[in-house]
Write a structure and sequence with these properties.
With 278 residues, the chain is α/β, with parallel strands linked by helices. Helix content is 44%, strand content 23%. It has a four-stranded parallel β-sheet, sandwiched between helices. A four-stranded antiparallel β-sheet has the order 8-9-11-10.
Length: 278
């Protein structure tokens, strides 16, 4: 079985200094930047994830670039999963090294199905401006990431931009203070599906909090979503009943996520054993 999970706001979290000091040894450092803590993980979650990795295949799945993923030392250097998916599915790491065949296939698919990046950049330049956009990056030669002042963002203009981008083969996702613009063929589902075929695993459990995770959540055999983030807010507005949410929100939602993964893994393993013996 595969456990494919988003990282930021699903397994790892930033915490204000006062809150981190208050939580003490209930959390551990997941990431450092210039010697300063950038993100944490629940200590109990880390211990349970270590255990689960002896029983199933854990695949981190993140919109972060390869470099940003490697910065999360708790996962990339200590847990060292065999497989990791970065760049929203645009890159796959196997034992820490990029899968060059997957990279080439993504480049070809983007070229075939999405408008050229320069045309997209022209549209972005018309809508995004310094009044509310703090910084912009073109990540891993695949997608755009913008840090914004959410309160000043002109929602109607951005909605219209998103609709035009959709027709150009690109998707828009607003996550807190970030706006991502990504080719539609660069997604987490396709990368996980590729690794599912490669590993010959039968089932996938998935978790994630954002709209960029939705395509993966919908693909998975089992899923659980933390009670915060875009998917939770969307459910509050639409009440679809399509997703299972944790009771807890914030950093300790991870404990519930991993306990759910553990219970599903045990249940499915037992069902497989019964099926094989009958």
């Amino acid at each position: 079985m595969i456990f494919a999970s988003d990282l930021d706001q699903t397994l790892i979290y930033s915490q204000p200094l006062e809150r981190a000091e208050e939580l003490g040894n209930r959390i551990i450092t997941a990431e450092l930047i210039d010697g300063k803590v950038r993100s944490y993980m629940s200590s109990s979650s880390y211990q349970l994830l270590q255990k689960l990795m002896t029983e199933l295949i854990f695949i981190p799945v993140t919109t972060r670039t390869m470099q940003q993923y490697n910065r999360i030392h708790l996962i990339s250097q200590m847990l060292k999963p065999t497989y990791a998916i970065t760049s929203n599915g645009g890159n796959i790491l196997i034992d820490g090294h990029p899968d060059l065949e997957w990279q080439a296939s993504i480049v070809a698919r983007v070229s075939e199905s999405s408008e050229h990046v320069q045309d997209v950049r022209k549209l972005l330049d018309r809508v995004l401006n310094q009044e509310w956009v703090i910084s912009s990056s073109y990540c891993d030669e695949l997608f755009f990431s913008h840090i914004i002042d959410r309160a000043k963002m002109p929602l109607e203009e951005v909605t219209q931009m998103s609709e035009e981008l959709q027709r150009m083969g690109w998707s828009t996702s607003i996550q807190g203070r970030k706006v991502y613009v990504v080719p539609q063929v660069v997604n987490k589902r396709d990368a996980v599906q590729h690794l599912k075929q490669l590993t010959e695993e039968r089932q996938v459990i998935a978790s994630g909090d954002s709209l960029l995770d939705q395509i993966l959540i919908d693909f998975a055999d089992f899923s659980i979503v933390p009670r915060h983030g875009e998917l939770f807010r969307q459910e509050q507005l639409q009440s679809t009943g399509n997703y299972s949410f944790t009771e807890e929100s914030g950093i300790f939602a991870t404990d519930e996520i991993l306990k759910y993964v553990e219970s599903v893994n045990i249940e499915q393993t037992n069902l497989f054993v019964i099926k094989e013996s009958s």
